[in-house]
Amino acid sequence: MDDKQESRPPATRRITDVGTLKAFGHPLRLKLYGTLRVAGTATASQLATQVDEAVSLVSYHLRKLAEHGLIEEADAQSGDARERWWRTAQEALSFRHEDFKDTPEGAAVHASVIRSLIAHHREQYETYLDQQASWGEEWRRAADQSDFLARLNSAELSELNTEIHALIKTYEERGKAAEAAGDTEGRENVAVHLASFPFRNF
């Protein structure tokens, strides 16, 4: 790796075009993007092992993500010049219904990607449930699954989401700062899934 410090990707990218959202929404690409986000940097071979797919297939889908600027090449992490290292091109992605609602295709793609993400989150949580005995008592006590009910207007819901996101961000930055200072003991990847929406009847 070069002696110079590699620049950090921008914090958030908002996807507003159907082509990019469709490229991101492929099930394997969703999994690859999520795996790469956790890893920081990785090669196609490393990612193929993580997702249990052929390296050639993973390489193809990584190129498709790169074509849309969702991932980018990273500085080499080894002396093997043949290895191509990747990282996400942003720390987080967002895509809003209002950017896709004006065309049937856009609305359908947006809904499909959201459903795929929900399925991925469920799979991730169910994997934890299957493995929770191995995590130990402290982690089992710390983990949480809750739901809440509030009577809000749309402005209050938006304010609630903004405050929750800001709070989570402070913990993300705290963890990064601690690890940068060498405080890595006992730290694990932690997923926080949030869904807030209005409803009248189930």
TrEMBL record:
The UniProt record lists the HTH arsR-type domain at 19-98
Q: Which InterPro entries has this protein been placed in?
A: ArsR-like_HTH, HTH_ArsR_DNA-bd_dom, HTH_MetalResp_TranReg, WH-like_DNA-bd_sf, WH_DNA-bd_sf
Q: Name one GO molecular function term.
A: DNA-binding transcription factor activity
Keyword Transcription attached: yes
**SUPFAM superfamilies recorded for this chain?**
Winged helix' DNA-binding domain (SSF46785)
Superkingdom per UniProt: Bacteria
Q: Which UniProt keywords apply?
A: DNA-binding, Transcription, Transcription regulation
This chain belongs to which protein, by name?
Transcriptional regulator, ArsR family
